[in-house]
Design a protein that fits this description.
80% of the residues lie in helices and 0% in strands. It is an all-alpha fold. It has one domain. Helix 1 runs parallel beside helix 4.
């Protein structure tokens, strides 16, 4: 069998594996607040998130096209399938490491950093599409700050609107609302995160000469959505523990505020075809909500640990992808 064919098949397999891992790695973020407030039982929350992730993933393709062409040009990328395979191996390794230690790192940072690192290793710095790459970096960097601000404002508004309401009844009502906001959160997660694997597979098909446009084929959309949904069905309870309880003590009103804030930002990014880190956005929204509730109530030590992981993910995954590319190049 031709080497290009083998590499392309491997890319598809690893891309679906990345989506599957992304499902159980990042889904925890989408349902963490609803589980921690006991609005939903873990199994129910995971099942609901799996369905909503699938629906979200199969509905949109704008982010997939951005991944396909905005980091590097797949039509001019030499050794394209090898570059993409190296990037996937790097991103999957980082996701598994951070999942094992229960750290809510970013799958988006991992895959984007890995694509850039492997591409530079193959073709030098000139290979990067700097305009598109910087646009993606700006979205990744700015979205957590926007999430903190929106989370703070939404929670502040809730405090004003419900200050004279009975606390027990208010929390009971918000616990019911959380079922809907958790479903919305999972849907928006699917609209943005699953598309990254779609974009990667499309890149590989272009690099292999099997496709001449950046259109995402139907079977790619379905396969990636299914992989994301199946991964979601497994769940990531270690990360639920970190996001849902270690950043701050979450009550139902806080959970609704955080879910609405982060879902609106993620879906907004999807509509303008920009990949963002759902992990960053959700964790940041919780920090903003916590700060509006009580600044000292946020466990800033845990928050600092999370932020540090955000910062190091992109350069580490880029460096690791470059190393993986050189190793694969020796064999292929």
């Amino acid at each position: 069998m031709d080497t290009i064919v083998i590499l392309t098949i491997l890319v598809v397999i690893f891309a679906l594996a990345f989506d599957f891992i992304n499902g159980f790695h990042d889904t925890a973020n989408a349902i963490a607040t609803s589980v921690s407030t006991r609005a939903l039982k873990p199994k129910t929350a995971v099942l609901m998130a799996a369905i909503m992730n699938f629906v979200g993933a199969i509905t949109f393709v704008g982010v997939a096209k951005a991944i396909t062409k905005d980091i590097v040009d797949p039509f001019t990328l030499g050794n394209g399938t090898l570059v993409i395979l190296a990037a996937l191996i790097s991103a999957i390794a980082w996701n598994l490491i951070t999942w094992y230690f229960g750290i809510p790192s970013s799958s988006s940072h991992a895959i984007i950093g890995s694509i850039a690192g492997a591409a530079v290793a193959a073709g030098g710095w000139a290979i990067l599409n700097y305009e598109g790459f910087i646009k993606i970096l700006q979205a990744l960097i700015l979205s957590p700050f926007i999430a903190i601000t929106v989370g703070f404002l939404v929670m502040s508004l809730f405090k004003i609107l419900f200050k004279n309401f009975n606390l027990y009844k208010t929390n009971k009502g918000f616990r019911s609302v959380q079922i809907g906001t958790a479903a919305l959160q999972a849907f928006t997660h699917g609209t943005n995160d699953a598309q990254k694997a779609m974009g990667i597979i499309t890149m590989a098909l272009i690099a292999a000469g099997w496709q001449t446009t950046d259109e995402v084929q139907g079977w790619v959309r379905f396969a990636c959505a299914l992989a994301m949904g199946l991964g979601t069905s497994i769940g990531g309870y270690k990360i639920i523990k970190t996001v849902g309880g270690k950043i701050m003590k979450i009550r139902p009103v806080n959970g609704v505020a955080a879910d609405l804030s982060s879902a609106s930002i993620i879906f907004g990014a999807t509509l303008i075809h920009l990949p963002v880190s759902t992990t960053h956005v959700i964790s940041s929204a919780i920090m903003g909500v916590g700060a509006a509730q009580r600044v000292k109530g946020v466990k800033w030590g845990v928050a600092r640990k999370i932020v540090l992981t955000w910062i190091i993910t992109l350069p580490i995954s880029a460096l690791f992808a470059g190393v993986v590319y050189f190793i694969l190049d020796m064999f292929f």
